[in-house]
Amino acid sequence: MNIGFFLKKIRKEKHFTLNEVAKSTNFTASLLSQIENDKTSPSLNSLETLLRYYKINISDFFKQVEQKSHIFVKCSDNETFENQASGVTLTLLASKLENNVLESYLVTLEAGATLNFAKLKPDLSGERFIYLLRGSAQAKLNDSEYSVKPGDSLNFKSYIACYIKNDSHSEKCEFIVSGNPPVLI
């Protein structure tokens, strides 16, 4: 656990100097520096004192400490959601970080299948990104239409509704969708 790293991060976010914290908590600046640089571990009592000074609940602090900073997902472990009636398959790609805003999916559309993305509220100010891997599709964003081929990409604000149709009569279409989590309708 990187307790010191997170204590330092919190101190800096609150714009406190080591000397200010030391003076207010009756610790030495040297001890605080050693804790923040993971040279020594704080006792539970010392940690509670620091977190009380920073006005942070100890359970909230440990949620932050235990949160992953990255994730690797093997192909065999991907979660897939399939709707055979609509011809749409979504495969969640390495998007399991807590509190993340970036979701990535591999989308497979059967021949002639369509997918609609609901537009999100404008105050979210997010984006979506689509990259076609295989097949061909028609994409419609507001009044604009695009013929999308492998290697083509679209980037658009998440408050814009998007409609994608596999325009093939016999082949599947595959593309990656990333950005604000897509809300499928």
By DSSP (H or I, 4+ residues per run), the number of helices equals: 5
Order of helices and strands: HHHHHEEEEEEEEEE
CATH class of the largest domain: Mainly Beta
CATH topology-level fold name of the largest domain: Jelly Rolls
Low-confidence stretches: none
**Name given to the CATH architecture of the largest domain:** Sandwich
Q: Structural class per helix/strand content?
A: alpha+beta
Shape call: elongated
Largest sheet: 6 strands, antiparallel
Helix content: 25-40%
How many distinct domains?
2
Q: Mind telling me the C-alpha Rg?
A: 24 Å
The strand count comes to 10
Arithmetic mean of pLDDT? 86
Strand order of the largest sheet: 1-2-3-10-5-8
Relative strand content: 25-35%
Which superfamily, in CATH terms, is the homologous superfamily of the largest domain? Jelly Rolls
Distance between the termini: 41 Å
Map the helices and strands.
Layout: H1 3-13, H2 18-25, H3 29-36, H4 44-54, H5 58-66, E1 79-83, E2 88-92, E3 103-109, E4 114-117, E5 127-134, E6 137-141, E7 144-148, E8 153-157, E9 162-166, E10 173-179
Polypeptide structure, described:
Helix content is 25%, strand content 30%. The relative contact order is 0.14. The longest helix is centred in the N-terminal third of the chain and has 11 residues, at 3-13. With 185 residues, the protein is of the alpha+beta class. The protein has helices at 3-13, 18-25, 29-36, 44-54, 58-66, and strands at 79-83, 88-92, 103-109, 114-117, 127-134, 137-141, 144-148, 153-157, 162-166, 173-179. The two termini are 41 Å apart. The strands form two sheets. A six-stranded antiparallel sheet has the order 1-2-3-10-5-8, with no helix packed on it. It folds into two domains: 3-66, 434 Repressor (Amino-terminal Domain) (Orthogonal Bundle); 75-179, Jelly Rolls. It has five helices and ten strands, in the order αααααββββββββββ. α2 crosses α3 (29-36).
